[in-house]
Specification:
Elements lengths: L8 H8 L35 H11 L4 H14 L5 E3 L7 E3 L8 E4 H7 L4 H8 L3 E4 L9 E4 L2 E3 L9 E5 L2 E2 L18 E8 L12 E7 L7 E9 L3 E12 L2 E12 L8 E13 L3 E15 L4 E2 H7 L10 E16 L4 E21 L28 E25 L2 E27 L5 E3 L6 E24 L2 E16 L2 E3 L5 E3 L2 E16 L1 H4 L8 E14 L3 H5 L7 E2 L13 E14 L4 E13 L2 E5 L5 E6 L3 E14 L2 E14 L3 E3 L7 E3 L11 E12 L2 E10 L18 E13 L2 E8 L7 E9 L9 E8 L4 E9 L1
Parallel strand pairs: 7-10
Antiparallel strand pairs: 1-2, 3-9, 4-5, 5-6, 7-8, 9-10, 11-12, 11-43, 12-13, 13-14, 14-15, 15-17, 16-42, 17-18, 18-19, 19-20, 20-21, 20-22, 22-23, 22-24, 23-26, 24-25, 26-27, 27-29, 28-32, 29-30, 30-33, 31-32, 33-34, 34-37, 35-36, 37-38, 38-39, 39-40, 40-43, 41-42
Helix pairs in contact: 2-3
Length: about 800
């Protein structure tokens, strides 16, 4: 198929449909996307911060006498204050510092930009807008891809080495059993802002190996008013979203939700996502309290990669095996509070209860295919063994992970000046507890129509694992930023981490023996960080308006990740564990350790209103935990591997000129093994690995750019572009197979305002219908080449083709 097969004319016609509407202004009351730039930090409602000028702004924002008067006071206050970009320095909302004080290339995005682009899922938004972020969609579902940042993963797939910690209003939402991240639990419409914290920042606790994603939600004071929107389009997509916020006196409230259904463009690829978010708050000059609820009830079909020869003959909608539904259910309650004790001291904290349950069904080929002689059904057409029973060609895996967690975080913020030298310190403690129950097993199965597993009469369900686990995580942390001059800031931090895991239950070994999995592990590690920022021109008294706020930064940080209970459960090669993924028992596992160095420059260019940053980083890992596949099914085991290194360069730019706003970024990543190893995959039990071999599914180069142009006061159009270079296949540890080729994508969005209450919009993705793979692995296609174990071929998850959607948004 030609690379640029889809003509641009149908897309342009969609973008021009709005021209028939009557022009009118659109009230920017609730997240008006026209007020935010694609990929930029935008002009979101400022988060609560601690400097005197910022407290003045917060007071004007959160305590209006009435809607009209409050808006007037806010505009007057904002016009008198310098623009200060504030970033979080802890997972809790409301604890922040000016960016100029902090060493590192922090990236901030706003919920307003989300509404402008209309992504299906949060991972897609992160990939399209943030430097050094790429999506690895091994699952083939838009709501459950891996997100890699600087080579570290935040993944929904148990078994993937996870190195990003994710926080929502102070709650760490990485799942406690295997540290994976279920993106479909995040209440998308409720997100106020999100921040990518770079490096191995110890303040964010265990698993912050490459960075932390910190999200804060809206409330009735920052997002008053009501909005409802609905859009529909290709692949049977329909999405209904709503939000409502308000305040009265000291009280405020916010409610949002979305119901999305999509048939999908591949076989058996439907998704049904339901999310609900509710928050009520109480606010005074000294006190801020919010109670929130987050719920989700989702059904997602997991497709996995398909052999490229099957894609070539059957088209990109082909799947390898099935069925693969996954059911996700979440209920979480979170209480946040802060109390101003004095002008210098503020006490903050949160307490949460979280219940997460997901169940999976994973149709696979049999773990051993040496005797794979056929896959037809009914059994009369199936190959038979010596006793006359059909030889199982498939394995229909079932499993569930029920997780209950609770925890609290308490921290004290101290802001004090000594002889004109500012000092900002935060000391805190965190506690997280979780109880999980993991069970799994399988039916020996035949392969039926469309490569779906079908149970065989006479073969009962075989239990594999029944494992209860308990885990406790305790952290004590301190961070301090000392500013001896306005142009020099020193930052230091450390965290004392303690982790304890207890495991019970049984598993079935590869010989059929039931084995006890009882184990208890404890880990303790102190992780430090130190850095500084320096404004060299200001230090020498030089004023150059074309190099405003020129800043040099350097930072060193350490972090660690203890083995998760799911990894300890599956650490024995003789007792392979079944996980809900097609690419993927109790020797002791060591914790993962990482050291990160980062340095660079940032600043602003005038004229042109251009914010820019250049940074270099290097992360050195030891004892990373790898999932080793033992055959063709999802069974395998965890083990520590040697050293790895992720190093790279980031360049980010964003600016505006009259009616045009834009952003561009480029990143280079070299992610390699640093130790000689012998690993295994679905092709070979012994794959030699040499230092310098590349890690899989990570492009070395990424380019992203976007523009937003206000054609008319009521009409806006946006475009964004992404390019990703070639990548090594998963399982190709020795880098001997052809790589996945690079690709480029173009997306377009447009909005037209009918009046202050009504807006229509349309958006299109992959405009040129690029044929590409979003992830890949090396394995054997057992349907071609039996009975000799199948043909070794690349497997790929095809990327979504051209798609277009349109909808209407009402707000009042």
């Amino acid at each position: 198929m030609p690379r640029f097969q889809r003509p641009l004319l149908p897309v342009l016609l969609l973008l021009l449909l709005a021209a028939f509407a009557l022009p009118s202004s659109f009230a920017q009351e609730v997240d008006d996307p026209a007020s935010a730039s694609v990929g930029g930090t935008g002009s979101a409602d400022p988060p609560p911060v601690s400097s005197p000028s910022d407290r003045k702004l917060r007071s004007a924002l959160q305590q209006p006498k009435d809607a009209g008067q409050g808006q007037s006071d806010l505009e007057k206050t904002m016009s008198q204050l310098p623009e200060v970009e504030v970033v979080a320095v802890t997972p809790l909302p409301g604890m922040g510092q000016p960016l100029e004080n902090l060493p590192g290339n922090y990236q901030i995005q706003q919920g307003k930009t989300w509404l402008q682009q209309e992504e299906f899922s949060l991972p897609q938004f992160l990939e399209r807008n943030m430097a050094s972020v790429n999506e690895v969609n091994m699952n083939g579902n838009p709501f459950l891809p891996n997100i890699n940042y600087r080579g570290f993963a935040a993944s929904p797939v148990p078994g993937t080495p996870v190195g990003i910690s994710v926080f929502l209003d102070g709650v760490r939402i990485n799942e406690p059993f295997t540290n994976n991240l279920l993106w479909d639990y995040v209440p998308q419409l409720a997100i106020q802002n999100m921040e990518m914290v770079p490096g191995s920042n110890p303040i964010y606790g265990q698993n912050t190996l490459g960075g932390a994603l910190v999200m804060q939600t809206k409330n009735g004071r920052t997002s008053p008013g009501s909005m409802i929107q609905d859009y529909a389009g290709v692949w049977g997509t329909n999405d209904l979203e709503f939000q409502h916020g308000g305040y009265k006196g000291k009280w405020d409230w916010f409610l949002s939700g979305n119901w999305m259904s999509q048939d999908g463009w591949r076989q058996q690829s439907s998704s049904y996502v339901k999310q609900l978010f509710a928050k009520v708050g109480y606010h005074t000059e000294e006190t801020d309290v919010h109670l929130e609820y987050i719920g989700a009830d989702n059904l997602l079909n997991i497709l996995g990669p398909t052999p490229i020869d099957m894609l070539a003959t059957g088209g990109n909608s082909m799947i390898y095996t099935g069925p693969n539904p996954q059911f996700d259910n979440l209920n979480m309650v979170n209480l946040l509070a802060s109390q101003k004790l004095t002008d210098e001291l503020t006490l903050g904290g949160n307490a949460y209860f979280r219940e997460s349950n997901y169940n999976f069904s994973n149709g696979n080929v049999a773990n051993s295919v040496d005797q794979f002689l056929g896959f037809n059904y009914p059994p009369a057409a199936q190959a038979l063994d010596a006793s006359g029973m059909p030889i199982p060609a498939g394995e229909w895996d079932f499993g569930s992970i029920a997780q209950t967690g609770a925890g609290a975080r308490l921290q004290l913020q101290w802001e004090k000046s000594f002889a004109g030298m500012e000092n900002y310190a935060v000391a805190g403690a965190s506690f997280d507890w979780a109880q999980c129950f993991f069970s799994s097993g399988f039916y020996p199965a035949a392969m039926g129509p469309n490569y779906n597993n079908v149970t065989i009469p006479g073969y009962p369900f075989q239990d594999q694992f029944s494992v209860p686990t308990f885990s406790d995580y305790v952290g004590l942390y301190l961070t301090d930023t000392f500013s001896p001059t306005p142009w020099f800031h020193l930052t230091g931090a450390f965290r004392d981490n303690y982790a304890q895991m207890m495991i019970g239950g049984t598993g079935v070994s590869s010989t059929g023996e039931t084995v006890s999995l009882a184990a208890a592990e404890r880990f303790q590690q102190v992780t430090p960080a130190a850095g500084f920022t320096l404004q060299p021109l200001a230090a020498f008294g030089v004023s150059d308006p074309t190099l405003k706020d020129l800043t040099f930064f350097f930072n060193y940080s350490e972090s660690f990740r203890p083995p998760m209970v799911g990894e300890i459960t599956g650490a024995n090669p003789a007792i392979p564990v079944i996980l809900p993924v097609a690419q993927l028992g109790d020797p002791a596992l060591s914790p993962v350790l990482v050291q990160t160095y980062e340095s660079g420059f940032r600043g602003n260019l005038t004229p042109g209103n251009v914010a820019w940053a250049f940074s270099f980083y290097q992360s050195n890992l030891s004892n990373n935990i790898q999932f080793e596949q033992t055959g063709h099914s999802s069974a395998g085991f965890f083990q520590n591997i040697g050293s790895e290194q992720n190093q790279g360069v980031e360049v980010t730019l964003q600016g505006s000129y009259k009616k045009l706003t834009w952003f561009a970024n480029w990143s280079f990543l070299e992610a390699t093994f640093q130790s000689p190893l012998v690993l295994q995959n679905a092709v070979s039990p012994a794959v030699p690995v040499q230092p310098g071999n590349r890690l899989p599914n990570l492009p070395q180069q990424m380019v992203k750019a976007g523009i937003t142009y206000q054609i008319l006061p009521q009409w806006q159009i946006s475009m964004d572009f992404q390019y990703y270079s070639s990548r090594v296949l998963y399982g190709d540890w020795a880098n001997v197979y052809p790589m996945l080729t690079g690709f480029a994508l173009l997306n377009i969005q447009t909005y037209y305002t009918l009046n202050k209450h009504c807006q229509i919009f349309a958006f299109a993705t992959n405009v040129y219908d690029e044929q590409y793979a979003s992830a890949g692995l090396i394995s054997q296609n057992v349907f071609t080449g039996a009975p000799n174990g199948g043909t070794i071929v690349p497997f790929a998850t095809p990327g979504s083709p051209f798609g277009v959607w349109g909808g209407i948004r009402l707000q009042f």
